[in-house]
Design a protein that fits this description.
By secondary structure, the chain is mostly helical. About 60% of the residues lie in helices and about 0% in strands. It contains 61 helices and 8 strands. The strands form 4 sheets. The chain has a two-stranded antiparallel sheet. A two-stranded antiparallel ribbon has the order 3-4. Strands 5-6 form a two-stranded antiparallel sheet. Strand 7 and strand 8 form a beta hairpin. It is found in: Nucleus. It comes from Humicola insolens. InterPro entries: ARM-like, ARM-type_fold, HEAT_RRP12, HEAT_RRP12_N, RRP12.
Length: about 1250
């Protein structure tokens, strides 16, 4: 960030925003007036001298010192050195005032800082007795302990800046560093002793002096952050004092102490200050607390960990060789009974291993390094004894860190530990299986599966007596195997898989038993390990031979369930070696010592020369027989091997595919008999996929055939999917430099192809076609700009596509073409080459205004659809280029759209309202204000239209207008009859504001902030936010189609909880794997049906015998009515209908369509409830009689829209028909009609 100049800072003061700044502005104005009177140039020196002369006046001391603080950093340093005594003498009375205000002191501290930074080494040699820099530093030290936070912070910042910028001298430390350190130590000691004495006198006041203690620690931290760190001779007493404070104080003090140590270490990370580090390490180890000190020991361990972290950065090899002593010291604390000590110790050991093991130990260890590794492993192995049983979880963390740090050097040192943990894991009573699995996984990753399986064999094929099977290790091998020997998989796991699979084959077609299913699972788990073995194998050339390739080919053909794993493995072979081969020269990853770049390049050449062509042939065949949803991994593998195949073999493969594709294109398109069934795509589709995939790797000479294929396929409008694949070819080619060059060379041919195929494009291929055009736009030269108006009408009409992705692509393409016109500003567009334009059409210059003229041509369209699309396109382009478009053009557009608001066509007006919304939001205020007189009345006409959410959209526009132009202006131009809408907006806004304030006062401020953060992320672009954002909560509930067509994206509404319900039988739960499970999932909350044995709850009445409705049921009884219990929230007729047709009390249709009731529904019911059920378990209902009875019940009148007839039927006697509602009767009528 650029530092502001003196002029910029003074400009801010000249135009003050606050009342208290006006006095300062007046002083500055007076100084500058004096400059003008004396013809003095306003330089920093002049400002500085003028302000110094005003320091004698105590009435204006505060604004003068404030201005002096601003000017001092810009004054010449020789002047500051020469005038130091004079300035300090003038500032001393100001600083020594007992009632001095904090702003005055802060400004004075700033002046002192600027003065001290300008002093040289000779000035710093003066003693503190004379008026010099050391006396000024003493003042800063006193202010650094001031109880006022802002004063204290400003003084500490000044001290930090002074100490970090020492004058040129041979010393590492600043000349004042020792003085600052001694003063800080004295202050800290005094405050700590005072706090300790007070705690002894009265135990309840431990925290009385915590603020003073924290202030003193902050001062120590400030001094420690100096350029040379804390002075060497004061390190030991400081550490002793800090650890004493951490021992006797509370948790906050311990954190403050640790922050001081952190600052000391940070200062020592510099090479200049690194000479102090060995002494600091010795001091820290000498100050080790008691082994059972649960309060101080964790902090000491953390300090030790950080110290060795810094040491490893400065001297990595020396730190590793001296790691045994601290490692053993800290490891002994895992025996502690206090959990916090054990956790701190384990974290410290993990930190040692993560930071103190240098790269050289892994790449080329010396004999001494190997001895250190052996001793570290012996220490770690001792942690598995019974003595450390309470810390087994922390021990596992340490062992895992050892594997991560030593990596392949862990073999063979850690084989014994691996075997011990594996045996513990095999014990069924062991409770830490998850932690043990993680450690064993790290062992597999570090030493390789071959080493781990040598001590923990799987024992699956031929289990030995007394040896447990370890099938649980297969998932660990899958997740952690990498960078190992591929030969081990061939020699051990392939035979095991063959043996297991043979047992499955021997079982034949008989129903699978549990044992056979286990064998199948084991086979799948074995092959799921292969991708790990193929991730940068160490022996690719030796292990991956023709025999193994044939094995993989057989698996691909014969075992479809394993294709995914085999494809991932083949792809990993290529991509892992490509990553190493493409790594930077300065990359010091230890992995490069195992597989260097040269070896990775040879591996790729070996695979490409010997196997790529054969594997591609196999993968092509597999791809052609795979369902579309499973083709992704196969196509990715094909892509990987196309990247390494030699050019001659690639050309042979391409020619073969083209030959087959030409034959497939001659065949007629056969539509599937059952489109909903899963089917393998046709041969032409498959081959076209392969051509698109291969295109990026083809040489330039093959592009002739490639473009011929594309020119043939884009005209096949009877096969939309094939057409889509052809259009994908152009963006695919643009991903490579060779393909991009070919597209630039053939731009004229491609433009002709795009224009000639416009009539043949199918709706599903529209998005891909637009994406292809978007790829070509940046590649066309300025001599071919006529291509933009040629395809503009198609892009504009695509803004009204039903497909959301096609609309979005059309909007992006409109913006892209606008930028192309801006970039070609001044170039000529030959309109005679535009289709349907006369041959003598004049040439025009490319410009943004010309582009808007082209887009606006659609406003003269013959159909409302075209006019609406043009308005939508203009809206998007206007929002994008609103800052560069001329005011005249914008004014003409607003005036034109104002006229379109008077149209009677809803589709046109929808788009115009979107345009108005963007204008109100983004166009200049002075441009929009003159148009409001006609714009607002025309908009308000549509506030009475309820279809298509016109009213909601108009309300949103008015909200935006009120927010931007003010309620008075909007109210002035609004018709008298429509001003009630403005009143409604105002009241809604006030109500919302009151709710927010109430929520904030109620402690919900955090929730509202979080909600606001989520609201920001709802919009995918600035344009979406401009269209969608609103203060109205009701606006979010209206999904306005015009907003959708403005952006091409349908705004996602936040889900308010789940709205799907599972309907289960009482006997068994729903099987979600069943094909018919979807039939039992409802979007309506099911009601609780009354059980047959339940008694009806009698209705409530008051003392006069009248019904009591809507009263709370405090006794917890069921709802009145007793038939069924429906949630109070479910008030819609749909809920009643669903409950009525699915309940157990619903009549069922029997033989010949007769309705039958459940004969047991009254069993155990109320004795007063009469029953007319027939003996055969149901009663027959005469449909005609029921209809006649219903008509009589209604009094011969049809039920109106108010639903009175329905209400009467629901209140009728339950014995006359279905007791729920008329919906059941209507369902019965429909069923009867269908059976009849």
């Amino acid at each position: 960030m650029a530092v502001p100049s003196l002029k910029e800072k003074l400009d801010k003061i000249r135009s003050p925003n606050l009342q208290n700044q006006k006095h300062t502005a007046a002083i500055l104005e007076g100084v500058e007036s004096a400059f003008k009177e004396r013809n003095t140039e306003p330089t920093p020196t002049a400002y500085f001298a003028a302000l110094l002369s005003l320091l004698d006046n105590k009435n204006i001391a505060q604004p003068v010192v404030y201005l002096l603080d601003i000017v001092t950093p810009y004054a010449p340093q020789p002047l500051l050195r020469a005038k130091f005594t004079q300035i300090l003498t003038l500032l001393a009375p100001v600083l020594s005032q007992p009632d001095a205000d904090a702003p005055l002191i802060r400004s004075s501290i700033g002046c002192l800082e600027g003065l001290l930074l300008a002093q040289d080494a000779a000035a710093w040699e003066q003693s503190a007795a004379v008026i010099g820099p050391r006396r000024a530093v003493g003042g800063l030290l006193s202010f650094a302990l001031d109880p006022r936070p802002k004063v204290r912070k400003r003084a500490q910042e000044a001290l930090r800046n002074v100490l970090r910028n020492p004058p040129p001298s041979p010393s590492l430390d600043h000349p004042a560093a020792a003085m600052c350190a001694e003063t800080a130590m004295m202050s800290l000691t005094a405050v700590a002793e005072k706090a300790a004495q007070l705690r002894k006198a009265k135990k309840g006041s431990e925290t009385v002096h915590d603020p003073e203690l924290i202030h003193a620690l902050q001062l120590v931290r400030t001094v420690a952050s100096a350029s040379g760190g804390w002075p060497s001779k004061n390190i030991e007493p400081l550490c002793d004092l800090l650890l004493g404070i951490a021992r006797s104080a509370n948790e906050h003090m311990s954190k403050a102490v640790f922050s001081v140590f952190e600052m000391i270490f940070e200062g020592m990370a510099d090479e200049v200050a690194s000479a102090k580090l060995p002494r600091l390490l010795e001091v820290i180890k000498e100050l080790r607390p008691a082994p059972n000190d649960a309060q101080l020991l964790p902090d000491w361990i953390l300090i030790l960990s950080r110290a060795y972290d810094v040491s490893a950065q400065i001297a990595p090899e020396e730190t590793f060789q001296g790691l045994l002593e601290p490692f053993s010291i800290v490891a002994a604390y895992l025996e502690s009974d206090a959990k916090n000590i054990r956790v701190s110790a384990s974290e410290c050991l993990v930190s040692f291993l993560a930071t103190c093991v240098p790269r050289q130990v892994l790449v080329d260890p010396s004999i001494f390094d190997e001895k250190v590794i052996q001793k570290l492993v012996n220490t770690v192995e001792g942690l598995l004894t019974v003595k450390y049983q309470a810390a087994w979880l922390e021990t596992f963390n340490v062992i895992g860190a050892v594997f991560d740090a030593l990596r392949w050097r862990a073999h063979p040192y850690l084989l014994g530990i691996t075997k011990s943990i594996g045996e513990m894991r095999s014990n069924e009573a062991f409770t830490g299986k998850q932690e043990a699995d993680e450690v064993l996984g790290k062992a597999i990753r570090a030493m390789g599966p071959e080493a781990v399986l040598s001590v923990l064999p799987l024992n699956l094929a031929k289990p030995a007596k007394g040896q447990p099977g370890r099938a649980w290790m297969l998932p660990l091998l899958r997740d952690y195997t990498s960078n190992t020997n591929l030969a081990h998989f061939r020699s051990e796991l392939v035979p095991l898989s063959a043996a297991m699979y043979q047992r499955v084959l021997d079982h034949g077609d008989a129903p699978k038993t549990m044992e056979i299913k286990i064998f199948e699972t084991v086979v799948q788990q074995i092959w799921s390990i292969l991708p790990g073995y193929c991730d940068l194998p160490l022996d690719l050339v030796e292990a991956f031979d023709k025999e193994f390739a044939e094995t993989l080919t057989t698996v691909l053909y014969q075992q479809p369930d394993l294709r995914l794993d085999v494809c991932r493995s083949l792809k990993a072979l290529v991509e892992s070696n490509q990553a190493i081969a493409a790594s930077a020269e300065d990359d010091d990853d230890p992995l490069l010592s195992r597989v260097p770049r040269e070896t990775a390049q040879k591996n790729l050449e070996y695979l490409g020369t010997n196997f790529s062509a054969d594997f591609l042939a196999v993968l092509f065949n597999v791809y052609s027989t795979t369902l579309p949803q499973k083709r992704g991994p196969v196509l990715q593998t094909i892509n990987a091997y196309l990247s390494i195949i030699p050019a001659p073999r690639l050309m042979e493969t391409f020619d073969l595919v083209c030959e087959k594709l030409a034959a497939a294109l001659q065949e007629p398109v056969v539509k599937p008999k059952n489109p909903s069934a899963e089917q393998v795509p046709s041969t032409a589709h498959t081959l076209m996929d392969l051509v698109v995939t291969m295109s990026i790797y083809l040489p330039r000479e093959s592009f002739e055939a490639l473009f011929k294929i594309a020119s043939l396929v884009v005209f096949k409008d009877d096969d939309p999917q094939l057409q889509k694949k052809a259009y994908k070819l152009i963006p695919r080619l643009a991903d490579s430099e060779v393909g991009r060059a070919a597209l630039e060379q053939r731009h004229a041919e491609l433009q002709t192809l795009i224009l000639s195929s416009a009539e043949k494009v199918s709706a599903p291929a529209r998005r891909e076609r637009l994406a292809a055009i978007a790829t070509l736009i940046p590649l066309i030269p300025q001599t071919s700009l006529h291509f933009i108006p040629s395809i503009l009408s198609e892009v504009v009409i695509s803004c009204k596509e039903h497909n959301e992705k096609a609309r979005t692509t059309a909007f992006d393409l409109l913006v892209l073409m606008g930028h192309a016109m801006v970039a070609a500003d001044g170039a000529l567009i030959d309109n005679s080459k535009v289709p349907n334009m006369p041959k003598d059409a004049p040439k025009v210059k490319a410009s943004l205004e010309e582009y808007f003229t082209m887009v606006s041509a659609g406003l003269a369209g013959s159909t409302p659809h075209m006019i609406s699309a043009s308005i939508t396109a203009i809206t998007r382009v206007l929002y994008e280029f609103r800052e560069t478009l001329s005011r005249e053009t914008m004014s003409d557009l607003v005036q034109t759209m104002d006229l379109f608001l008077t149209s009677n066509n809803r589709e046109i007006v929808k788009s115009v309202l979107g345009f108005v919304k963007v204008c109100v939001i983004s166009l200049p205020t002075d441009l929009m204000l003159p148009r409001l007189a006609t714009l607002i009345p025309n908009v308000m006409v549509w506030s009475h239209e309820h279809k298509g959410h016109f009213r909601a959209k108009v309300k949103h526009i008015l909200e935006r207008m009120i927010r931007r132009f003010g309620v008075d202006i909007v109210n002035k131009h609004c018709p008298e009859a429509d001003r009630k809408l403005i009143t409604n907006i105002r009241k809604t806004k006030e109500r919302s504001k009151r709710k927010k304030e109430a929520a904030r006062n109620g402690g919900a401020e955090g929730d509202s902030d979080a909600e606001g953060g989520r609201r920001k992320s709802r919009f995918e672009s600035e344009y979406d936010q401009a269209l969608y954002s609103s203060d109205s909560e009701s606006e979010a509930s209206h999904s306005d189609d015009s907003d959708v067509e403005m952006t091409g994206r349908r705004q996602k509404q936040p889900r308010k909880g789940g709205n799907a319900y599972i309907l289960e039988d009482e006997g068994e739960p729903l099987d979600l794997l069943d094909r018919n499970a979807l039939a039992n999932i409802s979007t309506t909350k099911p009601g609780k049906m009354r059980k047959p044995g339940d008694k009806k709850t009698k209705v409530k009445t008051d003392v006069d015998g009248k019904l009591v409705l809507g009263a709370d049921d405090d006794e917890g009884h069921e709802d009145v009515g007793g038939a069924m219990d429906i949630d109070g929230e479910e008030e819609s007729g749909v809920g009643a209908y669903v409950a009525a047709i699915r309940g157990k009390d619903v009549p069922r249709r029997g033989l010949r369509g007769k309705l039958k009731w459940n004969r047991n529904r009254r069993k155990g019911g109320d004795e007063d409830d009469d029953s007319d059920d027939n003996d055969d378990g149901g009663m027959d209902i005469d449909e005609g009689a029921a209809a006649k009875a219903l008509k009589e019940k209604r009094g011969g009148k049809a039920a109106g829209r108010g639903g009175r007839g329905v209400q009467k039927w629901q209140r009728s006697d339950p014995q006359r028909g279905c007791p729920q509602c008329i919906s059941c009767w209507a369902e019965s009528r429909r069923s009867w009609a269908s059976t009849a």
